[in-house]
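Incident log, structure service

09:12 report received: a user says their structure output differs between two submissions of the same chain.
09:20 pulled the input from the user's history:
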Amino acid sequence: MDLTFAEEGKEYIIKEIRTDDEELNSFLFSLGCYSGEPITVIAHKKAGCVIVIKDGRYSIDNQLAQAIII
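09:34 re-ran on a clean worker, output below:
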């Protein structure tokens, strides 16, 4: 399942990043978003969601959320 279906406040482990876009992949990697890393969805918004990775809090759009498989 991807991040758009994640429960708010529950910690998940990233299984994979599904994208053919190399720029998107490198952006997510720069946030610390890669396989084996814990991730938590703080809030779902209309256009995306707010996530916590490591010590950072980020707002990502639905395209990015759908690329993150948990």
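09:41 both user submissions now match this output. Likely a transient worker issue. Closing.
09:42 reviewer note: Residues 3-69 form a domain with the SH3 type barrels. fold (CATH 2.30.30.90). The mean pLDDT is 93.
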